[in-house]
Structures
1.
Amino acid sequence: MFKPLLALALVAPAMAFAAGGGSAPATTPTTATCTDGKIYDADTKECVDAQESSLTDDERYEAAREFAYVGQFQAARDALAAMSVQTDGRVQTYLGFTERKLGNMDKAMLHYTAALAQDPDNILARSYMGQGFAEQGKLTAAKQQLREIRARGGRNTWAEFSLAQAIRSGAGFAY
């Protein structure tokens, strides 16, 4: 029992950074300084609304990831809503994540499905979808997503690790 846990503890940090988008985002002034879901604008050095025209979609996306990581799901959704292409797989993946974390599993699955329709190799969407299945006790469906992750080049990634853990525990990751 101890040896597998030790091996997991040694490998997990490295896997988190091999995630293909699943590693924890860096803490920035967006969550360290700004309040009320505002995003730190490095150019103006001010906290601004997500709809601020000077922000790029990449900045909004990174803010959404950061908000989601710290549990500010509505702020994450607001940042995603301000992105110019709502059908983007990144947007759909994180809308699914926030819906799942807010307890709206049916809506989450619709977003994950949209993300995968755009890019079947989106292993992060597959991992989050599989975690949702695991949380619902739908282990066959969760294991199918794990197989897909592995088949699509996702071995030894955060996507694989987190879904495998969710299948074993029945609980998804906070991130």
2.
Amino acid sequence: MKRIFAVVPLLALIGLGVVGAQNLLRQDKPSAGLSEGRAAPVRSFETMGGGSTVSFHQGVRGEPLVVNLFASWCGPCEVEHPLLMELARTHPDQTFGVLYRDTPENGQQFLRELGNPYKAVALDGDGQGGLDFGLTGVPETFVVSADGQILQHVRGILTPETLEEIRGLLDGGSEPVELP
């Protein structure tokens, strides 16, 4: 009888490990968030460098924009950074960053080392702005329409495929995108 009590927790632990491994290895993991179709948060952020604010609840001069939430301490943010640099070459005035739960000094160092793809970088030191967007963890990227609706929410690292979808939205597409 005592052996059963010793084996049950071990079997439960093994079962949880198997379920967790299956979820991590699934090929059909969703990369889209649940924010599509919602309004972008009405909030003003102080910009890195100080002296001004930026808000994302409306597009830029009647155009959609991209808001990428990142942090200097985020390894996946570093991995996706070359794609953001590529996006900024074609859409420089529509690409914005939000430095999430990080210091301006660390953010500036990160961008000095990797390049700065952003027209402006907003500061979100306490993380509330990211939560207002629907952030689940950095990096995450949002495409906001000219009228302030979230058209696309990419959780995790950008891929060449999601980059092309984002470009399509920035170039005039207006339908929310649901990724496989």
